[in-house]
Structures are given as structure tokens and as C-alpha cells.
């Protein structure tokens, strides 16, 4: 096992820039697509269910492969895996931009998800190598998460401008120059990480994970079209449950499992993962639903829709900076609780809006949700870095981000099944969806209170 020498300060900063660029285009791609949905639907002549697949094909591949990507980062080094993922994502973006049909677009979105999965765990591991001192690492993670959160929030506005000016294909092609710059910066300046040469790839576990999440996603998406009591949906849910149970059984007996179940003895990882799942459930679902609400119920253009999302994004960077400082001074529990509490209030307020509600009545709750999510995200990432062994950071990061992406997949599916353009009453479905997000966020707060009963210090050893 080789331990790389600490990177110089300038190299650390450029490594932070490289990882931030990677996370930016990955997160931008999550939200930028939403404002293009109406144009994609008209251009490719597809229905609302197909639109959900355009959004979720990316997130599904992302969620399915994150654990393997974390293991790859541990075994081969985070820099090599990060560069490979960045290259796959960039090439897949070209495929999306040049696609002339739904099948090619969805397939290219799957490849984007593969590239994104390779990038995210390795980018967090790269930050751990570039910033070995805990206080500096907390600030670096705050910046990394802040730029990504800003990209998530800016996606609708950026997408609105691009779609209105250059067509929906441009939201994918814009990734290409960013990808090239990020790959160069990583190769030139990012340090390598500790390599766990004994790590092996668990093919059986990976296959069962794909079946579990794919079956769950199919059930959630098709449930809105076929009905939750349909034989197809129930069969898919049963398949997801069976594959999930078999996955746990295989992992418990495997010598080098894809998901070491011993990791779940770590209360901080468990709480962070549950918090991340609920954050993405509400945020991703809300982005999808509100885009349809603005463009269908309120008849806004893509650009107007992007502008309508500004209250949700205006304070993202500030909230992330505040979260980093709170985490560095008081530990990760406080920003988790504050963020989830604020998001819960936002979801509750959105349960009372209608198509003719004022911009203020819609914007303030969205502002609360965006601020709450931005406060919570850096703290859950810093918590994992601070309480997992250095040789397992990649796989632990994979667990955390898999939980978040599962939340996003289910959120888009559930919100999409409730908020459908053909229903004639988008607001009623939206009210049910945000109340579900409200309840899940409250459950997350209970988990934080029970699982992190004693506040932990922010400055701790990675193996602590």
C-alpha cells in the first residue's frame, strides 16, 4: 500500500477546483434537464412517463454504480477513477446532445450516470488526500458542496437560457469544455490517494443492486401511469424486495462484499445516509414537479421557469459557507438539524399554493427548502470523512451518495406520479407530494436526534 506525499498548497487548491468542476457538471445535469422537459417532449414526441425516464435513467445508473465506484477508488486510486468517470460523462454528454430519439437520449443518460458514479466518491476521496488537516478539509468540503449546490440551483436558470437561445441539446453540449478543463486540472494537480490493493469487485452484489434499484425505479415511475395496484407494478415491487433481500444475504457471506455490512455499525454514516436520502427525495422531486407546475399550470416559458427557481437558489452559496463554518466550530449535528427543519417548513408551506398564487407565496417556501438543503449537505459529507477509516472513505462515500441518489430516483418517481400534466389538477398532486416530503424530513430529524444524541466535535481523525 502506497501513501502519497502531501500535496503543496497550490496543488491542493487546484485539486479542489478540479473536483468542484466535476461535481458541478454532475449536479448541473440533474436539474438543468427539468426546464427542457417540455421542449424535449415536443421535439421527440414522447409522453410524461418517458420524460421521467429521461430524468431518472441518469440518476438510476448513478445510484446503482456508486458502491462499485467507491470500491474502485479505494483499490486503484481516486485520481485515476475520477479522470475515467469525467471522460465517460463528457463523451456521454455529446451523445445526449446529438440524440435524435428517446432511446438514444435515455441510453446516453445512462452513460452519463455511469460517469457521474465514478466521479463522486473519488472526488470526495481526492479532497481527503488534498486536505489532510481536518479544519481545512471541512472548509474544502464546504466549497466543494457549495459549488455543487449552486449548480443544482442554477440548473433551471442556466437551462432556461440555453433552451430558449440554443435549443434543448445545448444543455448537454455545454458539459464538454468543462469536462476537458476538469480532466486536465486533475491530471496536472490532484494528488493520488491511499490504494487498498486487496479490494475486489463484488459482481454478484453489483448485479443484485442493479436489479433491486431498477425494479424499484420501474415500479415508482410506472405506478403513476398504470396504477399502484396494477399487476406489473406489484410484480416489480416484489422483485425489488426479493433482490434486495438476496443482496443483503450475499453481502453478509461475501469475503469482500460490495457493501460491507459492518459499515452500518457506524451511527454517523447511518444518520448521514438517511439524511441524504430524505434531502434528495424532496429536492429532486420538487424540482421535477415545480418545473411541470410552472410550465403547465402557470404556462411559463423555460426561461421564466428558470427565473421562478431563483428564490430556491439565491442563498445556496451563502448557506453552504455558513454550514461549513458551523460544522468546523460546532460539529455536523447543528447544521443537519437546522437545514432539515428549514426544509420541512418549506415543504409544509408549499402544500397551500395554487396556480394563481403570488410569486412571494411560492418563492418563500422554495427559498426555505433551498436554504435548508444547502445547510445540511456539507455537514453530512464532512461527518462521513471525519468518522470513517481512511482506507474505506471511498466505499463509505459511495454508501452516502447511493442513499442520496436512491432518494432522488424515488422522489422524481413519486412526485412525477402525483403531478402529471394530463391530470388536469397539478396543484392537488403537488400538495400530496410536498406533504410526503414534509413527513420524510420530520422522520429524518428524529433519526438525527436519536442517532446523534451527543454532538461530536468537528475536528476529529478520519479513523476516529
Explain how this protein is built:
There is one protein chain. This protein is mainly alpha-helical. The protein folds into two domains: 9-194 and 258-451, Up-down Bundle (Growth Hormone, Chain: A); 203-257. The protein is 79% helix and 0% strand. It has helices spanning 9-32, 37-44, 48-76, 78-98, 102-130, 134-166, 170-173, 175-189, 203-226, 231-253, 267-297, 302-308, 310-313, 316-330, 333-350, 359-386, 393-418, 426-451. Helix 4 runs antiparallel to helix 8 (175-189), helix 5 runs antiparallel to helix 17 and helix 17 (393-418) packs antiparallel against helix 18. The longest helix is centred in the first third of the chain and has 33 residues, at 134-166. The chain is globular, with a radius of gyration of 20 Å. It starts with 8 loop residues before the first helix and ends in a 13-residue tail after the last helix. Pfam families: MFS_1 (PF07690). Belongs to the major facilitator superfamily. EmrB family. GO terms for molecular function: transmembrane transporter activity. This is DHA2 family efflux MFS transporter permease subunit. InterPro entries: EmrB-like, MFS, MFS_dom, MFS_trans_sf.
Question: In summary, what is this structure?
Answer:
The protein is mainly alpha-helical and 464 residues long. The chain is built from 18 helices and no strands. It is found in: Cell membrane.
Amino acid at each position: 500500500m502506497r501513501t502519497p506525499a502531501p500535496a503543496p498548497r497550490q496543488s491542493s487548491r487546484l485539486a479542489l477546483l478540479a473536483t468542484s468542476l466535476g461535481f458541478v457538471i454532475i449536479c448541473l445535469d440533474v436539474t438543468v434537464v427539468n426546464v427542457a422537459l417540455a421542449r424535449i417532449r415536443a421535439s421527440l414526441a414522447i409522453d410524461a412517463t418517458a420524460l421521467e425516464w429521461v430524468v431518472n435513467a441518469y440518476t438510476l445508473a448513478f445510484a446503482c454504480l456508486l458502491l462499485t465506484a467507491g470500491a474502485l477508488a479505494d483499490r486503484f486510486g481516486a485520481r485515476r477513477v475520477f479522470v475515467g468517470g469525467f471522460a465517460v460523462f463528457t463523451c456521454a454528454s455529446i451523445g445526449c446532445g446529438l440524440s435524435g430519439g428517446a432511446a438514444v437520449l435515455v441510453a446516453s443518460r445512462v452513460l452519463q450516470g455511469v460517469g457521474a458514479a465514478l466521479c463522486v466518491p473519488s472526488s470526495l476521496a481526492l479532497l481527503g488526500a488534498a486536505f489532510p488537516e481536518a479544519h481545512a478539509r471541512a472548509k474544502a468540503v464546504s466549497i466543494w458542496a457549495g459549488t455543487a449546490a449552486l449548480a443544482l440551483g442554477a440548473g433551471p436558470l442556466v437551462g432556461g437560457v440555453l433552451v430558449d437561445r440554443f435549443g434543448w441539446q445545448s444543455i448537454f453540449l455545454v458539459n464538454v469544455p468543462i469536462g476537458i478543463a476538469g480532466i486536465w486540472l486533475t491530471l496536472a494537480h490532484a494528488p493520488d490517494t491511499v490504494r487498498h490493493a486487496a479490494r475486489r469487485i463484488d459482481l454478484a452484489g453489483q448485479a443484485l443492486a442493479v436489479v433491486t434499484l431498477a425494479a424499484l425505479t420501474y415500479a415508482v415511475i410506472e405506478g403513476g401511469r398504470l396504477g399502484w395496484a396494477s399487476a406489473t407494478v406489484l410484480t416489480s415491487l416484489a422483485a425489488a424486495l426479493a433482490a434486495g433481500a438476496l443482496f443483503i444475504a450475499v453481502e453478509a457471506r461475501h469475503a469482500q462484499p460490495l457493501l460491507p455490512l459492518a459499515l452500518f455499525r457506524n451511527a454517523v454514516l447511518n444518520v448521514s445516509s438517511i439524511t441524504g436520502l430524505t434531502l434528495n427525495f424532496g429536492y429532486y422531486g420538487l424540482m421535477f414537479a415545480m418545473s411541470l407546475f410552472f410550465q403547465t399550470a402557470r404556462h411559463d416559458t423555460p426561461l421564466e421557469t428558470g427565473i421562478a427557481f431563483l428564490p430556491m437558489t439565491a442563498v445556496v452559496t451563502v448557506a453552504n459557507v455558513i454550514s461549513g463554518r458551523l460544522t468546523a466550530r460546532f460539529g455536523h449535528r447543528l447544521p443537519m438539524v437546522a437545514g432539515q427543519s428549514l426544509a420541512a417548513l418549506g415543504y409544509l408551506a408549499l402544500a397551500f399554493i395554487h396556480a394563481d398564487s403570488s410569486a412571494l407565496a411560492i418563492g418563500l417556501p422554495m427559498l426555505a427548502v433551498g436554504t435548508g438543503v444547502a445547510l445540511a449537505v456539507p455537514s453530512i459529507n464532512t461527518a462521513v470523512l471525519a468518522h470513517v477509516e481512511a482506507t474505506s472513505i471511498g466505499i463509505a462515500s459511495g454508501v452516502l451518495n447511493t442513499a442520496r441518489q436512491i432518494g432522488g430516483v424515488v422522489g422524481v418517481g413519486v412526485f412525477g406520479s402525483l403531478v402529471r400534466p394530463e391530470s388536469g389538477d397539478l396543484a392537488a398532486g403537488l400538495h400530496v407530494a410536498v406533504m410526503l416530503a414534509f413527513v420524510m424530513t420530520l422522520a429524518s430529524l428524529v433519526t438525527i436526534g436519536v442517532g446523534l444524541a451527543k454532538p461530536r466535535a468537528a475536528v476529529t481523525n478520519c479513523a476516529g
